[in-house]
Amino acid sequence: MPRTRSIPDAAIYATIQRMLAGGGEKSVSFASVSAASGLAAPTLAQRYGSRDGMVRAARASAWEDLHRRTQAAIDKTADKGPQALLKVIGPVDLAGLMADLLDPDLAQSAAVWRATVEGALALRLGTGQKARDSAALLFAAWQGNALWSPLGETSFRLKEAVKRLT
């Protein structure tokens, strides 16, 4: 019978995600995660097999969390417009997730998330190809703004984008 995990994977993933956000890929090692989480490095190696396996598991967990948050936002704003949906989804750490596009499985998760958001936006914008096209443009504008806004003030306003696309 396997031992009970004293520190669950979710707690380890949260630690790794904080480390990735704060110091990038190079900040994550069995030793650094061990020091930050209190779980022995050999236990981490046994759980995840390799450092890359540990990082990949944390990133996959981040995508799963984003999918759950997105579905909750879709449900919460079912009777509201596209702007409300995007506000409830909130900011997405694109810089941290961009490296995931090099991994085929994580890239697939990203594509599914994008299709989910665009589909929900399209339902709020109308029907047909115009709604789907507008949803794709709105998604791109929203994500582009999220990517570039940390570098300085932006004149982009989600409300204005929604008005122009509807």
Instruction: Count every beta strand, where a strand is a DSSP E run of 2 or more residues.
Output: 0
Beta-strand percent range: under 5%
- Radius of gyration using CA atoms only: 19 Å
N-to-C span: 59 Å
Count of DSSP helices? 9
State the order of secondary-structure elements, H for helix, E for strand.
HHHHHHHHH
Structural class: mainly alpha
Which range best describes the helical content: under 10%, 10-25%, 25-40%, 40-55%, 55-70% or over 70%?
Answer: over 70%
* Mean pLDDT metric: 88
Overall form: elongated
Low-pLDDT ranges: none
**Main sheet properties:** none
Q: Can you describe this structure?
A:
The chain is mainly alpha-helical and 166 residues long. The model has no long low-confidence stretch (mean pLDDT 88). Helices cover 73% and strands 0% of the residues. It has nine helices and no strands. Helix 2 (30-37) packs across helix 3 (41-48), helix 7 crosses helix 8 (128-148) and helix 8 (128-148) packs antiparallel against helix 9.
Task: Provide keyphrases for this structure.
elongated, 166 residues
Brief summary of the model shown:
Helix content is 73%, strand content 0%. By secondary structure, it is mostly helical. The radius of gyration is 19 Å and the shape is elongated.
